[in-house]
Specification:
Number of helices: 24
Structural class: alpha+beta
Largest sheet: 5 strands, antiparallel
Number of strands: 11
Shape: elongated
Length: 741
């Protein structure tokens, strides 16, 4: 592989005009496709194999024309202090609002609060339910404007009016902190390379890769039913890995220049060595993201595949466009150890008393670790273990309007409904009774309603509402607890258990669905899939790393270190988003259960990203060991060449992820924080402390591989051994000519 990538790097350097033209053309094509594509339509959310989804599909069949997946809105009215919604003036205002809403072209029904018992017991709060025939993302802007105008007219009449539901669903905003993250990355790159041009290359290539990836997702969003979160995730991961991969290549290129090689030769060797690490690091990320398909939640699968595609683009750009741009940069990219004049290039390098170059920070740290491996290992493991303690209290759920910022009308409507009707009113359960096989369907409907009324935790049960055929009915159940609580989850299971007894007695099947039940089923499905997913992803990556490192213990150590870092990161997420530690600093306005997707998503993404540092750092150690250094010397050599780059890469990745903490979407905010803290734990505690300590303790055993397995494995030559004999310096005159162009 190293030889092939070496030739690819030289070719891209030499034919840089052609390579640059291809990538610019792809970016233009993707941009045109995104600009001309129709807006994203319905991002369908289905959970195959769950009871909630089965009930939802049954509703589509038995209640045709009711648009079960259509958008909904709850227009909540509150009377001024000392007044009631039953007062004649306020009643007239509400009835006028209901009449105006009913005239909408996409409206299927509007429930009058005075006819549907939708006024609170104290008479201060009422609500009107509005149903539409299309999803929230498909609603015309004119329909949303009409909804807001009707609410505003009621406000002008003296009422407090808020709108809940998904009718006003908007594309989440990431906030200005995303730009700050990129700015931090730029500063880190300038400090790392000591050159504005060298620092600009990773940023430019990463932005081009993300531009192609996100534009492609936007162009296909309507066809593939991709949600808005998909492009945000692809941007988040694409930016991080795109900068990191280009950073690895440029750093190795400068190191090759420092050894006296010509620029084309240096570019080839950089792609042949660091590029090999980029390929395998990218493969682990792709495996982790595509592996999300095992959960069998289409939305999660699409998110993973889209993000994986952006990572693949980042790898290809690092291998081709980076060496091409290095050809354009010429002598503006300095050898390692040199800085541009603008950044103090005239200053002499620091030297010790003997006149030799002073060891860098990475060398000094690695030397300390190999002298005190036990102490460093214990301190790292105990520290991560302490950070992971909050994870033992992990509670999972999907966010609802109660997790929205208090500045939003959805959150204020949620709070008003909780005040007027109880906490469970925001999470009603829909019980679907399929009595097609029952002898007396009406009696079965009544039996189900009566049975549910006797279950603890139920506040109200509506009368059964049968369909035209009379073989299916819906019953709405109001819990006494909020939607994301453990008590509501227990109630759903209790109703389902009762349904089993009813089916035995009457032949009618009882199914529980609705947004709350759907969320509970998602959480359960994700929990059940976590272990198989972990085995699949870690297992495949373990095999891949055996090929890369030609070792059993090094990949095993990498996997165990990842588990430590991901558990510590989950602990930090629980502490902030569930317990409320530093919640004000993070902009978390409402604490509660952690998003159900978070554990499995962090396992996938963090594992892939963690392997980036593992591959880049340890391949330099492996390279030194293969070339004759003893194990401890190899660790120090790996840190001398790689610690600065890995540190910079980690800080950049943390900055990019942390930039998404400013998002208005709670899911994106939580993912941004979780990934940022996970990178911190993995890069600075696991890879920079635990890894060298373990390798120092293992010594030569770390690189042991059974002979039969050594013969069976393909030789991918990640350390570039084949380049020592195949590679040659470019002609100095040719190199000078290339530098001028």
């Amino acid at each position: 592989m190293a030889t092939f990538l070496y030739k690819l790097g030289r070719l891209a350097f030499r034919r840089r005009h052609f390579v640059a033209l291809i990538w610019v053309a792809l970016l233009t094509l993707a941009g045109v496709g995104a600009a001309s594509a129709p807006p994203a339509g319905n991002s369908s959310f289905s959970i195959p194999g769950t009871e909630a989804q089965k009930a939802f599909d049954l509703l589509e069949q038995r209640f045709p024309g009711q648009s079960a997946d259509g958008a909904t809105a709850r227009v909540v009215f509150k009377a001024p202090d000392g007044q009631k919604m039953t007062d004649a003036g306020h009643r007239a205002t509400v009835e006028k609002t209901v009449h105006e809403l009913a005239d909408g072209s996409e409206v299927t029904s509007v429930a009058d609060p005075y006819q549907g018992n939708a006024v609170s017991k104290d008479g201060t709060i009422a609500y009107a339910s509005v149903r539409y025939d299309v999803s929230g993302m498909e609603l015309e802007e004119s329909t949303k404007d009409a909804l807001e105008d009707a609410a505003q007219q009621a406000r002008d009449a003296g009422l407090t009016v808020e709108i809940g539901g998904d009718a006003l669903q908007a594309v989440p905003e990431t906030g200005s902190t995303e730009i700050i993250g990129i700015a931090v990355a730029a500063v880190v790159l300038v400090i790392t390379f000591g050159s504005l041009v060298a620092a600009g290359l990773p940023l430019l290539t990463a932005l081009i890769g993300v531009g192609i990836g996100v534009s492609t997702i936007t162009a296909l969003a309507n066809v593939l039913e991709l949600g808005s979160t998909t492009s945000i995730l692809a941007m988040m991961i694409g930016l991080a890995v795109g900068i990191d991969y280009a950073l690895f290549i440029v750093s190795r290129y400068r190191a090759e220049l420092a050894e006296g090689r010509g620029r084309e030769e240096a570019a080839g060797r950089a792609v042949g060595t660091a590029g090999s690490a980029v390929v395998f690091a990218g493969l682990t990320v792709v495996i982790a993201l595509v592996g999300l398909a095992v959960v069998n939640i289409p939305m999660l699968t699409k998110m993973g595949v889209a993000a994986a595609g952006t990572v693949a683009i980042a790898v290809l750009i690092a291998l081709t466009m980076v060496p091409a741009l290095l050809g354009y940069a010429g002598r503006k990219v300095k050898p390692a150890g040199e800085k541009s004049k603008l950044l103090g290039g005239a200053r002499a390098a620091a030297k010790n008393e003997a006149g030799a170059a002073r060891p860098n920070m990475g060398t000094r740290w690695a030397s300390f670790v190999v002298r005190r491996p036990v102490a460093v290992l214990l301190l790292g493991v105990l520290g991560l273990g302490a950070a992971a303690i909050p994870a033992t209290s992990l509670e999972l759920s999907l966010p609802d309007d109660g997790a929205q910022p208090t500045s939003t009308t959805q959150r204020r409507a949620y709070d008003l409904l909780s005040d007027g009707f109880g906490a469970g009113f925001n999470g009603p359960l829909m019980v679907v009774v399929d009595a097609k096989g029952a002898d007396a369907p009406k009696d079965a409907f009544t039996d189900v309603a009566d049975s549910i009324k006797g279950i603890e935790g139920v506040v109200a049960v509506t009368p059964p509402a049968p369909n035209k055929a009379g073989d299916t009915a819906t019953i709405t159940v109001i819990p006494d607890s909020k939607p994301s609580s453990v008590q509501t989850e227990d109630l759903v299971h209790a109703i389902r258990d009762t349904g089993g007894d009813i089916k035995a007695d009457t032949g009618a099947e009882t199914l529980v669905t609705g947004a709350t039940a759907m969320n509970i089923d998602v959480s359960q499905k994700l929990n059940d899939a976590l272990l198989p997913y972990l085995v699949l992803v870690v297992g495949l990556a373990f095999l891949l790393l055996i090929v890369v490192f030609r070792s059993i213990l090094v990949p095993l150590k990498a996997a165990l270190g990842f588990l430590l870092s991901v558990m510590a990161a989950l602990g930090a997420v629980v502490a902030v988003f569930q317990w409320g530690w530093l919640s004000g600093l993070m902009g978390v306005e409402e604490t509660g259960p952690v998003m159900s997707m978070m554990p499995i998503f962090m396992v996938g993404v963090v594992f892939g990203l963690a392997m980036d540092y593992e591959v880049f750092l340890v391949t330099r150690m492996r390279e030194a060991y293969v070339h004759g250094e003893n194990p401890n010397q190899a660790v120090v050599t790996g840190f001398r060449h790689g610690a600065r780059v890995v540190t910079a890469a980690a800080v950049i990745m943390m900055a990019v992820f942390a930039g998404f903490i400013g998002s208005s979407e709670s899911m994106v905010k939580m993912i941004g924080f979780g990934l940022a803290i996970a990178v911190f734990f993995d890069a600075f505690v696991v890879r920079m402390a635990i890894v060298p300590a373990v390798l120092a303790l293992l010594g030569r055993k770390a690189w042991w591989l059974p002979k039969w397995l050594d013969r069976a494995l393909p030789n991918v030559d990640v350390e570039g051994e084949g380049l020592r004999t195949a590679g040659k310096h470019t002609d100095p005159d040719e190199d000078r000519e290339l530098a001028r162009t």
